Amino acid sequence: MNTRKRLFSLCVGPILFLMVSLGLGKSGFMNYTAAKGLGTALWMIYWWVSRPVDITVTALLPGVINAIFNIVPMEDVISQYASSSIILIFGSCLLTAPWSQIGLDKRISLKALTLIGPSMKSQITVWLLAAVVLSNMMPNVVVVAIFTPIAVSMLAAAGYKDIKNCEVATPILCAIAWGSQVGGAGTPLGGAMNITAISFIEEYTGQEFMYVDWLINMLPYTVIATAVVLVAMLLQPLKTDSLSGTKEYFEECYAQLGPMKKDEKVSLILFIAAMLGSFIRPLYADILPGLVPAYLFLILGFLNFVIVSAEKKEMLLTWDRAQQEVMWGMLLLFAGGLALGQILTGSGANDTIANLIASLHLAGGFETIAIFAIFACVVSEMTNSTVSAAVTLPIVIGVISKLGLNPLPYVFATAMAMNYESLLPVSVRAISVSYGLDPAKLMRKGLPVTVLRMMTAIIVGFISVIILD
What's the N-to-C CA distance of the chain in angstroms? Predict the structure, then answer.
C-alpha cells in the first residue's frame, strides 16, 4: 500500500466514527452512546478491510476509543484482553509450542500423508481430509502453517518448483487452506472464532458451555461441508492426472524421523489429555467446577516449562521458545473482537440494530438464516472468521431475542457460515499465497466452492434450527 492510500485509509476510519457518532446521535435514531458504539465497529471493520495498519493493531482500538470517549465502563473492555477465552488459546499455544522443535508436528502430518497416492484426485482428497481432521484438534492457522511447507517440498521433489505458475500446486494448496477452514468449525479447538462464539453464548446464558455440545451441534455441518468442498474440488478440471514419487517422498520423510521419541510422546500425551478433558468436562464439572477447559489447557501447557527434555536435558519448553511460538497476534485479534462485542452490547448499539432488523418482519425462518449467513460469510471473506464472529454474533443474539426465539440455534447456524474463507489472500490463505499460490487463481477456483459451501451452511443451519428450536 502506497503512502497516500494508507494515509487516506487511516483518516477514513476516525471520520466514519465521528460521522456516525454525531450524525446518528443528533438524528434521534439512537442515543449518542449507542452511536459511538456503532461508530467504533465501523471504524474497526473499515481498517480490518482496508488494512492501513495490521489487523492485530486494529484489535487494540476498543481500548483506545473507549478510553477517550467513555462509551462503556473501561474494565468491561480491558477485561476481554485477559478473559478465560484468551487463557484457553494461550494454553493451547503452550501445549503445541514444543512440537516444531521436537518434530511432533511433522510426524503427525507426514503419517497422515503417507496414505497419499500419485493421482491428483487422491492428492486433493488426502490433503483436504488431513487438514479437516487436524484443524479439529488445533487452530486452522497452525494446520496451514504445518502442511503448506510440506506440500511445497513435495512438489519440489516431484519437479514442480515454480509454485505460482504451477497448475498442480494450486489445487493442493487450496485443499489445505479450505480443508482447515471446514475442519476448524467442528470443535472449539479449531480457532478463536469458535471460542468467540462460546464466549457470547456463555454471556447470554450465564452458564458454562460444554465443548462436547459444540461438537454435537456442528458435526453434521462439518461432515456435509467436507463432502461438498471435496466433490466441488474434484469436479474442477485438472491439467495433470498424477504426480510421480509423492507417496514415496512422504514415506521417506517419515522414515527419516525414526522411532517416536520420548519428548514427542510426552508432548502428545499432554495435548490429548487437554483435548479429552475438555470434551468430557460434563463428567467432572460438579466435582471440579473451576477446572474449565481454559485452565485445564493452561495447567497442562504450564507443565511443558517444568518437564525436562529426555534428549536435550533442558526444559521441554523455555520462555524464549514460547515467545517465538505463541501466536500473540491471534490472541490480541481475538481479544479485540470480544472487546468490540462488549462495546456494541454495553452501548446499546446491538439493541438498536436488532430493533432495526426486527422491523423487517423477519420470522426467524429460512430467510433470517440466509441473511445472517450471507452477512457472516461476507465479513469472513473480507477479514477473517474471528472478526466475523465478533461483529455478527452479538447482532444475531440481539435480533433473535427480540423475536422471542431461542438464539442459540441461530448462533450455530451463523457459525457454520462464518467458518469459511476461500477467496481473498487474507487470514490463513495469506500463508498459502506467501508460499507462491497465485491470488487470482485462489479467487477463481474458490468462487464456486464458496457459493456451494455457503448454500450448505444455510440449508444445514436451517435444518438445525428446526430441530433445536
Answer: 47
